């Protein structure tokens, strides 16, 4: 089933366990003199931009001699169009296939020899590559990563082999997984014309028809210094990072990048619904509503709505005392499980969704009624101070926990930069959560959760034997 992952929870869903490090940057040392672009220090984070447009973010964290090096490209499935869906994720796979100076498979071997870890991931909003190494290896991984930013060799034979890998990945994660399939179908009707509807892995029909040239064009179009953010967190000196960045990334030319068209979702003028059947024991239901994010909000009122929706998500779902589990799973016992999901940092208009598995004997319609009852409560009664305090305590705990992981810190910085949100979003998060009022929560519940703006997805058992699932995917992105 789907997981509710708010801004911080996404950032903390580390690909590996981070080291216990603490930030220790000097807020008062604002500049370096290596090039004309100064290092700016704000909120404990140093940042600068190379002449070729590469944005660099450095956060010092000196508790262990470790460094996380990440490159984030502003490209993902919601930059794609029909016919080539999934091409961002496929390109991520192909990025391990070598350059003129690094043979196929050698990238990973080299990082492994350093005793480091490395991988990559693709989401709807971005594609990122990372390595975690001892600080003495920072220069080497920067050289390696900078090389494949521009010098990737795309080869027909490797392409065909990797297409098979991705085909199998799609089969395992989505086609053989009724819950993933339901989410994919739900999402494709929740958005009719916005590329938010495109699954990260791509439609199978498109995967089968990709050409090598599609990958080549995608690479040339988006993999450029002025479409990337380099994030380095750990036991590093920003001046040294800048020196290496100039040396290895600075040699690449700026590209002429056309920003993607807005492709704004058309207004929803009625309920949208789909029912599918699959090999499942119990039915599943997803109810979703189009909502703004911090990125799509055009003014302060819009941003307040995004924070109110985030708090609302935590009131409904977040821990055992949150409303949905408390009242619908433990209380009425009508639902076997239920989750609420909203991502305030989405680049495009997104969904606030409720996903649930009804208890045995409860129909999908009765399950929906249960959730509508909770929605009605939000619309007619103000949330209590106690509930708001619980949400705030959770947000504060997540913030502190994030500081424990160099990777967690880098993930937040890279994702914010990639969707165009200021880095200060992170440090202002708790303050903004604290400012959300019961009236604002009630207002967003009334405005966005209506019968006419509902998108409904239902999965019913088809009577077939339930397969053992591997590698389920949901909102989070792919590797
Ligand atoms: Zn993959």
What keyword list fits this structure?
alpha+beta, binds zinc ion, 479 residues, globular, disordered N terminus, 17% strand, Cytochrome Bc1 Complex, Chain A, domain 1, 2 domains, seven-stranded mixed β-sheet, five-stranded mixed β-sheet
Task: Set out the fold topology.
Layout: H1 7-12, E1 40-42, E2 45-49, E3 55-60, E4 66-73, H2 87-94, H3 106-113, E5 117-122, E6 127-134, H4 138-150, H5 156-175, H6 178-190, H7 204-209, H8 212-222, E7 228-234, H9 238-249, E8 272-278, E9 284-291, H10 300-316, H11 323-331, E10 335-341, E11 350-358, H12 364-380, H13 385-403, H14 406-419, H15 424-427, H16 429-435, H17 438-448, E12 454-461
Parallel strand pairs: 3-7, 8-12
Antiparallel strand pairs: 1-2, 2-3, 4-6, 4-7, 5-6, 9-11, 9-12, 10-11
Helix pairs in contact: 2-8, 4-9, 10-17, 12-17, 13-16
């Amino acid at each position: 089933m789907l997981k509710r992952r708010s801004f911080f929870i996404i950032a903390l869903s580390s690909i590996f366990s981070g080291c216990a490090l603490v930030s220790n940057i000097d807020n008062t040392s604002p500049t370096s003199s290596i090039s004309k672009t100064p290092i700016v220090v704000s909120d404990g984070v140093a940042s600068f931009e190379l002449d070729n447009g590469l944005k660099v973010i450095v956060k010092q964290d000196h508790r262990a001699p470790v460094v996380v090096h990440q490159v984030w490209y502003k490209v993902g499935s919601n930059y794609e169009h029909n016919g080539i869906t999934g091409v961002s994720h496929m390109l991520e796979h192909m990025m391990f296939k070598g350059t003129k100076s690094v043979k196929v498979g050698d990238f990973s071997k080299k990082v492994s020899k350093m005793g480091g870890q490395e991988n990559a991931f693709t989401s709807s909003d971005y594609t990122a590559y990372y390595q975690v190494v001892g600080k003495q290896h920072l220069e080497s991984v920067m050289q390696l990563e900078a090389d494949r930013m521009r010098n990737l060799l795309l080869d027909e034979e490797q392409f065909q082999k990797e297409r098979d890998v991705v085909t199998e990945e799609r089969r395992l994660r989505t086609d053989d997984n009724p819950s993933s399939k339901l989410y994919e179908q739900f999402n494709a009707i929740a958005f009719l014309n916005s590329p938010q509807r495109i699954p990260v892995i791509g439609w199978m029909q498109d995967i089968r028809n990709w050409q090598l040239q599609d990958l080549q064009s995608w690479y040339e179009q988006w993999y450029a210094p002025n479409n990337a953010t380099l994030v380095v967190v750990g036991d590093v000196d920003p001046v040294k990072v800048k020196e290496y960045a100039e040396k290895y990334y600075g040699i690449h030319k700026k590209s002429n990048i056309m920003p993607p068209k807005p492709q704004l979702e058309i207004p929803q003028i009625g309920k949208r619904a789909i029912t599918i059947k699959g090999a499942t024991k119990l039915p599943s239901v997803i109810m979703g509503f189009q909502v703004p994010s911090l990125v799509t909000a055009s003014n302060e009122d819009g941003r307040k709505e995004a924070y109110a929706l985030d708090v609302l998500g935590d009131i409904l779902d977040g821990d055992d005392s949150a409303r949905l589990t408390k009242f619908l799973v433990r209380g009425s016992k009508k639902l076997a499980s239920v989750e609420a999901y909203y991502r305030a940092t989405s680049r495009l208009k997104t969904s606030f969704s409720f996903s649930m598995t009804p208890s045995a004997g409860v129909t999908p319609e009765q399950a929906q009624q249960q959730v509508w009852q909770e929605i009605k409560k939000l619309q007619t009664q103000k949330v209590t101070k106690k509930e708001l305090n619980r949400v705030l305590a959770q947000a504060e705990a997540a913030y502190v926990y994030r500081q424990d992981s160099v990777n967690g810190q880098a993930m937040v910085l890279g994702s914010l930069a990639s969707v165009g949100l200021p880095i200060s979003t992170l440090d202002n998060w708790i303050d903004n959560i604290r400012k959300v009022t019961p009236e604002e929560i009630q207002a967003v519940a009334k405005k966005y959760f209506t019968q006419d703006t509902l998108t409904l997805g239902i999965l019913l058992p088809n009577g077939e034997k339930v397969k053992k699932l591997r590698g389920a995917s949901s909102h989070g992105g792919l590797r």
